[in-house]
Specification:
Blueprint (H helix, E strand, L loop, with lengths): L31 E2 L11 H9 L13 H11 L6 E4 L1 H13 L5 E6 L4 H8 L3 E6 L8 H7 L5 E5 L11 H10 L5 E5 L3 H7 L7 H5 L4 E6 L12 E4 L2 H10 L7 H11 L2 H25 L10 E5 L4 H10 L2 E2 L1 E2 L6 E5 L3 H17 L2
Parallel strand pairs: 1-10, 3-4, 3-5, 5-6, 6-7
Antiparallel strand pairs: 2-8, 7-8, 9-12, 11-12
Length: 363
């Protein structure tokens, strides 16, 4: 790295995407992509049609404020448009939240292991990090997080958690919010909320706290259930003053015109969402049953992925699976856990066959 760059960048871990570019010679086509929690059915058909109709508009700058999409989201969620911001994926909005609320000396609390971007954005801001280990069931230790939140500017709850797929219930979150100081902003990262809501009746309606004026910021994504990961669209639901603060940190035109058009159409495609939820529920059950058959510990996921313990270095197992044409996400270096996305039935069959081969070869 350039020695003249900010010294703090040396402590910022690089984000490693699940769908990494393949090296020359790996020649694995078609590859079963089960590493990035993408929609196995692909994009919403309505989104694809909308993109085709609007293709003559791409020479113009997009709407800087994403007005049409924000109005549709406001109507869907029952909040004023002033409570909504749209950005380049929920990760882009997370970075803006960090830029708006973190600086040297300010504290951010999050669980661990969880989505690695929390650690990255905190270190970019040179903030004080308090990673709270998950409990023995792979769930947020809310009691310890509430204790740490007494001195925090941001408290991040990934719900459901990535990579474990576990979730915080309505009752648990109500109790937790009652213990967090009013000046701390609680960020609920709900990239997988639609899957969790379909799987768990007690998954919280977190947007209601925004309606009530609480200092809660909710992050959602069009990358998962809507199948638009390649277009990078996410949204933030938060009190107007939080949206205003985030707006001061953003660059102009954060969401390209095709992404706005596609997201607006995808939001209305209830049929595609329904099919996706059904396929994911069936695939998730299949992965959990496979883990049970093989004697591999796993957590009860409500997301579109399963976190399982293969009993040997995850990096090695992932590399062996890749040689067999299956791409999965290993846990942090030194762990024995893999995160496997729900794919199509055909992809899951390829994963099952490859995993059985790898485990058999290792004895």
């Amino acid at each position: 790295m350039d020695p003249h760059a900010r010294a703090t960048l040396r402590d910022v871990p690089a984000y490693v995407p699940g769908n990494r570019p393949l090296a020359r010679g790996e020649g694995l086509a078609p590859l079963a992509h089960l590493a990035s929690n993408e929609n196995p059915l692909g994009p919403s058909p309505l989104a694809l049609e909308a993109l085709a109709r609007a293709s003559s508009q791409w020479a113009r700058y997009p709407d800087d404020h994403c007005a049409d999409l924000r109005e549709a989201l406001a109507a869907r969620l029952g909040v004023p448009t002033e409570c909504l911001a749209v950005g380049a994926g929920s990760s882009g909005l997370l970075k803006l939240l960090a830029e708006a609320y973190l600086e040297p000396g300010r504290t951010v609390v999050y669980a661990w292991p969880t989505f690695p971007m929390y650690r990255i954005v905190a270190r970019l801001q040179e903030a004080v990090e308090v990673p709270v280990p998950l409990d023995g069931d792979g769930r947020h230790d809310l009691a310890r997080m509430a204790e740490a939140a007494r001195r925090a500017s941001l408290v991040v709850v990934c719900n459901p958690n990535n990579p474990t797929g576990t979730y915080v219930s309505e009752a648990e979150l109500v109790a937790f919010l009652g213990q967090v100081p009013e000046d701390a902003l609680v960020v609920l990262d709900e990239a997988y909320a639609e899957f969790a809501r379909a799987a768990a009746p007690d998954y919280p309606d977190s947007v209601r706290w925004v309606r009530e004026g609480r200092r809660v910021a909710v992050l959602r994504s069009f990358s998962k259930v809507y199948g638009l990961a390649g277009l990078r669209v996410g949204y933030l639901v938060a009190p107007p003053e939080v949206v205003e603060a985030v707006g001061r940190a953003r660059v102009p035109f954060p969401v390209c015109a095709p992404a706005q058009v596609a997201a607006l159409a995808a939001l209305a495609d209830e049929a595609h969402v329904g099919r996706t939820l059904q396929v994911v529920a069936e695939g998730r059950r299949r992965l959990q049953q496979l883990a049970g058959q093989l004697g591999l510990p796993s957590y009860p996921s409500v997301a579109n992925f399963v976190w399982l313990d293969v009993g040997r270095p995850a990096e090695q197992v992932a590399a062996e699976l890749l040689r067999r044409g299956v791409l999965v996400r290993p846990g942090p270096i030194g762990t024995t856990w893999l995160r496997v996305s729900v794919g199509t039935p055909e992809e899951l069959s390829r994963f099952e066959g490859a995993l059985r081969q790898v485990l058999a070869a290792a004895g």
